[in-house]
Amino acid sequence: MAHPSQLGFQDAASPVMEELLHFHDHALMIVFLISTLVLYIIVAMVTTKLTNKFILDSQEIEIIWTLLPAIILILIALPSLRILYLMDEINDPHLTIKAMGHRWYWSYEYTDYEDLGFDSYMIPTQDLAPGQFRLLETDHRMVVPVESPIRILISAEDVLHSWAVPSLGVKMDAVPGRLNQTAFIASRPGVFYGQCSEICGANHSFMPIVVEAVPLEHFENWSSLMLEDA
Amino acid sequence: MLAIVRKQLRNHPALIPLFIFIGGGATMSLLYLARLGLRNPDVCWDRKNNPEPWNKLGPNDQYKFFTVNMDYSKLKKDRPDF
């Protein structure tokens, strides 16, 4: 989850998010280098005592400052396109979960083997137990097995919502009447938080998403328990 | 027109990389757009003979331009024919 005064991304919990993090580091390093260079040139131009009123043009420097930015842009574009196509690949998911957005909660359906469905409401601030996170905890978490490709089908029952979990690198709009598909692999066990990312009314900020990645046996126990309770 | 450009290039050779990159970029964009228009199964050109090409997708075909980790020819076809 996010922590106070955080500047960067949350720690990656899926291979796609790791790739995105590395790409962001790469692009940001290029941006820092260019900004430093420009700042240096500005300071140098402003503080120099040299003057030459008769320079008209220079072919060499023009070639350099055409070639170098083009090369830098290619160096940014190639990893970017690679990640773009990587994010679209869904390689043989082990489990399919449907996430439906409502006003103002999410409901999850695990219908591969049995008919398991439940709603996930935010825990109000006054009902939080010590150690729980404000505006982020829900009564029922979406439990998934760790290190398994999971396919999520996302839609909405009333207005636009968006299912987003930053540490898994997932964000997909929930559009009424439309089924959007995305996938992720949780690389490590843990609890990953997200929030609804499309304005949907009064309680848009109060319908969080919690994904809990557990080993497969725990997932099987959990789903049996949930089926009994239902 | 071309003669004027050639004369300007001789006096300002720095314009050559500019032509290469801008021309190359525009060419690649147009080629990709053409590929999308002609090869994308979501696009219908011939309403009489091929009205809904998105209904004719094969399970092992690759429709994307580039794959990183997937080999579509190795996928199993685990869905029913209809």
From TrEMBL, chain A:
Q: Does the keyword Magnesium apply?
A: yes
Molecular function as annotated in GO: copper ion binding; cytochrome-c oxidase activity; oxidoreductase activity
- Annotated Gene Ontology cellular component terms: mitochondrial inner membrane
The regions listed as transmembrane in this protein's record are 27-51, 63-85
Q: How is the cofactor bound?
A: Binds a copper A center.
Domain spans labelled Cytochrome oxidase subunit II transmembrane region profile:
1-91
Q: Does the keyword Nucleotide-binding apply?
A: no
Q: What is the protein named?
A: Cytochrome c oxidase subunit 2
Compartment(s): Mitochondrion inner membrane
Cofactor(s) for this UniProt protein: Cu cation
Quote the catalytic activity from the record: 4 Fe(II)-[cytochrome c] + O2 + 8 H(+)(in) = 4 Fe(III)-[cytochrome c] + 2 H2O + 4 H(+)(out)
Which key words are in the record?
Copper, Electron transport, Magnesium, Membrane, Metal-binding, Mitochondrion, Mitochondrion inner membrane, Respiratory chain, Translocase, Transmembrane, Transmembrane helix, Transport
Database matches in CDD domains: CcO_II_C
Automatic annotation (TrEMBL), chain B:
Q: Name one GO cellular component term.
A: mitochondrial inner membrane
Give compartment(s): Mitochondrion inner membrane
The stretch of residues making up the signal peptide is none
Give the record's membrane topology.
Single-pass membrane protein
| Alphabetically ordered keywords of this record | Electron transport, Membrane, Mitochondrion, Mitochondrion inner membrane, Respiratory chain, Transmembrane, Transmembrane helix, Transport
**Regions crossing the membrane:** 14-33
> What protein family does this chain belong to?
Belongs to the complex IV NDUFA4 subunit family.
What is the designated name of this protein? Cytochrome c oxidase subunit NDUFA4
* Taxonomic lineage: Eukaryota, Metazoa, Chordata, Craniata, Vertebrata
